[in-house]
Amino acid sequence: MSEREISSAVIRRLPRYYRYLGELLENNVVRISSKELSIRMKVTASQIRQDLNNFGGFGQQGYGYNVEYLHDEIGKILGLDATQNMIIIGAGNLGQALANYDFDRIGFKVIGIFDINPRLEGLAVRGVEIQMVDTLEQFIKDHEIHVATLTVPKKQARSIAKQLETWGIRAIWNFAPTDLHLSEDVCVKNVHLDESLMTLSYNLRHRGKEKYSYKSYMED
Ligand code: NAI
């Protein structure tokens, strides 16, 4: 089966497998059966087998999964085996908080942070100096950057995203609360913490009315 046919629901579940397998590795667990993994992850063993069969299985009858191998393979499927240099546009509260976080461990290295506020120029966040946006185009070209994080005010987000596209950015991790209209060549992943909070609010309001299912666990 080609990767193009993999459902987005399966892709969304892969990071959770990756995280659990990483924890098992840290605890020196060498192999695990789909049953044991299913108990830990609170999903059914058949769901795990079905998900992993999309990529050729990885398990062996009677042995289960080799934790390190499966962790590495899922990492490769997710593209985490190569380092991606990343830039952050908008060095305010959120931009700086993200710049301070260690995304290197999953292969994303922040090498540039940009803003329009001259008071921020030269300020280092986790060793990376904030630069003014007028150097952005050249920086993207010089460093062959393909991934940008967008943490600018909503009003500026669309036009900046368009510019980033023309300068060669191919993936945008968008935190601005607006939909970006870009060509299909650019992958956009929107992150909206308040939407997550709204669903938490819903769950709180409706708590006890519905059983918390395996399915909702996996959709988190
Ligand atoms: P902030 O005001 O602290 O930071 C915004 C920064 O963007 C400022 O430093 C400003 O100078 C800079 N900026 C403005 N225009 C720019 C441009 N043309 N080029 C480069 N930089 C520019 O705001 P905060 O709290 O950091 O929020 C940033 C964005 O993230 C906002 O759109 C906000 O709504 C959004 N946000 C999203 C969240 C989410 O869960 N998706 C959570 C919190 C904020």
From TrEMBL:
SUPFAM superfamilies: NAD(P)-binding Rossmann-fold domains, Winged helix' DNA-binding domain. InterPro entries: CoA-bd (IPR003781), NAD(P)-bd_dom_sf (IPR036291), Rex_DNA-bd_C_dom (IPR009718), Tscrpt_rep_Rex (IPR022876), WH-like_DNA-bd_sf (IPR036388), WH_DNA-bd_sf (IPR036390). NCBIfam families: PRK05472.1-3, PRK05472.1-4, PRK05472.2-3, PRK05472.2-4, PRK05472.2-5. The keyword Transmembrane helix does not apply. Its main location: cytoplasm. Belongs to the transcriptional regulatory Rex family. Modulates transcription in response to changes in cellular NADH/NAD(+) redox state. This is Redox-sensing transcriptional repressor Rex. It comes from the Bacteria. One of its GO terms (molecular function) is DNA binding. Residues 79-179 form the CoA-binding domain. GO terms for cellular component: cytoplasm. Pfam families: CoA_binding, Put_DNA-bind_N. Keywords: Cytoplasm, DNA-binding, NAD, Repressor, Transcription, Transcription regulation. Homodimer. Residues 16-55 bind DNA. NAD(+) binds at G90, A91, G92, N93, L94, G95.
